[in-house]
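Running low. Invent one:
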Amino acid sequence: MRTRTGVLVIGTGIAGLTAAITALERGLSVIVVTKEDRVEECATNYAQGGIIASKPGDSADAIARDIMEAGCFYNNEDAVELFASGAPRLVFDILAGKAHVEFSKSNTSYDYTGEAAHSTKRIVHFEDHTGDAIEAALAAYARSLGADIRTGHTAVDLITNNHHSADPRELYLPREVFGAYVLENATGCVHTIFADAVILACGGVGNVYQFTTNPPAATGDGIAMAWRAGADVINAEFVQFHPTALFHKDIKRFLISESLRGEGAVLVDRNGQAFMHTYTPQKELAPRDIVTRAIYEEMAEQGVDHLFLDLASHYKGEVPIKERFSRIYATCLSGGIDITREPIPIVPAAHYFCGGVKVDLSGHTSIRRLFAVGETACTGIHGANRLASTSLLEGLFWGKRAAEACSAASQEAPASNGAYGAECAQPVSGERFDRILDWEKPANPERFEPSLMYQDWNMIKLTMWNHAGIVRTRKGLQRAEADLNYHEHRINRFYHEACLTRDIIELRNGVTAARLIVGAAMHNRKSIGCHFRLD
């Protein structure tokens, strides 16, 4: 089936939904796809701590300074300044205003909280499950605008004029993205969706690691698709590990929010002894990379597989723990841990991808008509390490900016044969779309055992955890590169012979994303931020 729209958004987190909402409000036709069966199943939905918001007495300069310091001054200063001055107010303009997110209040005022490396309390939240409150509100608002949201649809590859057109003249024109091939999971049908602009909002890469806080869908899809299409990917070595994921045999991927440390929680060893003061004067409120490495070193020195976070003995908040951290309390209690009475077992886990598809200040990539937002994109604001509670706001801010850029371009007169600036997303002539080939299936597609893909995923996860994780060395990275190159070649051959499924698409994307991370880590010999090289 061939479909045409003004904007194709791939992903339904805060960045993707904000982009779709903004485009719809400006009169553009929009299709949104997600490989999940529920719109709400995305990384945004699991965010706990909160989101930076404008606050009397705070300033753009102070926000920018905190972001730059956390990012080791590796940041894109223009992006940081733009973000610090323009993004915080959108929390009230869009989320609280249009989408009616009800952030927690103390009496009649917003309950601003603090997190590591922030110089003031500037983070608003909804108890300890801010993400699902935002996700539900944005999804409802998008639906009220008539958004065409297609669940159970997995993007396979981006369509480019140079690679997918039957017209040889397209080879000599600048590269443009014309849409995407999208698999309908339930039927196995691959749809050709044409668009004047594509916005990648596919999330991060956490599942290429053995331990992660990310949902299962975070397999590097947007980064891999953009790279295959020829887009620039930068800062891929900067994978942020969250210091405190729940360590439990039955409960996986559960984050213990940094906001607990913002409310007084202390990291302790098995004897109940605090240790962060021996690593940094900031103690538990140091940037995430420092706290993560401190835990890693303590675990290695003591020969243990986890440590503890003690909230019960050090809580400073006024609201009872059961209410302030209701989601964490309930989840831990389901695993036999009462956080009001005992320390929480924790371990570091892959959490956030600070790199991504290189974009400008409006979310344009290096390919015409292709935009990237949220964790898929690299605006440069995070530098070498992300400041806490910037990610939701980054998705909100650049989701809006990318859609505004699409809208502005759509108002301009179309140019012939694609001869216009890289920033444009003007309507494409129908004849150019007509010459694009539909998806071609293998002649005799094979079905592969799920155990083979499980085995391949395990190889990727262990390779990345052991050699491209919290601490890295040249020899370890070389080993990882060799192993991943071999497996990527084999997986790609496997992909071209297989019946197309979501699982095989994710495996292909995952091994590509892993290889990009390792390649970037080998290239950057400087130990900085969350790229820590022991050698």
